[in-house]
């Protein structure tokens, strides 16, 4: 006869991710966000991803179509476990759906959890650097770029110019090489810009942020870098992160704006 026993543990249960547990709502087609966050988050912060269905080609109408799935996606991230913050990881999707609406949708299933997104994070970063005039680089088409530029203009920033690679496929955007991103950022940045913003969580911009800043001599903010920075602020993470631009090199001890 089989003997069944219960094994007892000798030590107290460990509390995993003691410095922060962050939920990530990623697009189903995003090839990059998890690799980027893995590079940037400290070892004592962990993120947990669930994916929301999205549709290519990337248009404003298709971006809006993912809104009904956001609440259910948030609900699937470690159900029954407290999260310290939740990220909705799509820049153009936030522009299309709206910052407040994104938060409302997440809070339908995860009430009370601080929520950020690439737009909110980027705006907070712009304030941190006291930037007023910005250049923007994206992988998007001109139609989507117009919406992005109009959004940031409506927030009070002078968008000096916006350049895009013209891609409509979210997965293919990740195939743009970091070197091409760096060269395009340098070539397209207006000389009067206070800051360069590289939009889209699918772009591998984080790998070349230090290089671009050295070449431009101004702060460079990317969607994923801003998300990492802002979410670390939301969990009150006290230390800097190096290798991913000036934003993360700065002290992170202050609460998020």
Would you write up a description of this structure?
By secondary structure, this protein is of the alpha/beta class. The protein folds into two domains: 124 residues, Rossmann fold (3-Layer(aba) Sandwich), CATH 3.40.50.12500; 101 residues, Rossmann fold (3-Layer(aba) Sandwich). The protein is built from twelve helices and eight strands. The strands form two sheets. It has a four-stranded parallel sheet, sandwiched between helices. Strands 6-5-7-8 form a four-stranded parallel sheet, sandwiched between helices. Helix 1 links the parallel strand 1 and strand 2. Helix 6 crosses helix 11. The protein is globular, with a radius of gyration of 19 Å. The C terminus is likely disordered.
The total count of strands amounts to: 8
- The string of secondary-structure elements, in order, is EHEHHEHHEHEHEHHEHEHH
Radius of gyration: 19 Å
Outline the biggest β-sheet. 4 strands, parallel
- This entry's quaternary arrangement is single chain
Strand content: 15-25%
- Low-pLDDT sequence parts: 253-257
The order of strands across the largest sheet is 2-1-3-4
Helix content: 25-40%
| Molecular shape | globular
Calculate the mean pLDDT score and round it: 95
**Total discrete domains:** 2
What is the annotated CATH architecture of the largest domain? 3-Layer(aba) Sandwich
Using the coordinates shown, work out and report the CATH topology of the largest domain.
Rossmann fold
The SS-based structural class is: alpha/beta
- Report the CATH C-level class of the largest domain: Alpha Beta
What is the tally of helical segments?
12
